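Notes from the 1:1 (GR / supervisor)

We went over the backlog. Supervisor wanted to see one worked example end to end before approving the batch request, so GR pasted a single chain during the call. The sequence is below; no edits were made to it. Supervisor asked that the structure be written out right there so they could see what the output format looks like.
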Amino acid sequence: MQIVLYEPEIPPNTGNIARLCAATDVRLHLIEPLGFKLENRYLKRAGLDYWPNVHLDVWPDWSSFDAEGRQGARLVCTSAKKDRAETCVQNFTFQPEDCLVFGPETRGLPQGILRLTPYHVRIPMLAGRVRSLNLSTAAGIVLYMALASSGLLETWS
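Structure output shown during the call:
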């Protein structure tokens, strides 16, 4: 399992997701441009002292990641919009090698990336309450659903 953040914008979200990746031994891919510098104190603070345990790759653009980073793994794109992702995350069958792709906080994944794969998931929410969840919260929900669905959690205590 891998997490891919396409052009993330908010350092604490990325830091929290890095901590999530450290806790689950999941590789984290960051696709540039980033909305911050990797030396950002808020990024480091959110990730605490777990950064040495994060398997981190930073890619200059989507094409580089797609050609070299995902190594043939299936892309599973996320979206808060029902018209972009009809399948609820709890109804999707994940595979252990999947790349879970999340878009930037303010605009989500572009259509060009969404078109690269038929696999799109969303987190169900009550209608009319909020537009979306915080990126790091969404990443945690999707990752743990993916780990459970693919059987990877069964060996954990």
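Supervisor's comment: DSSP finds five helices and seven strands in the chain.
Batch request approved.
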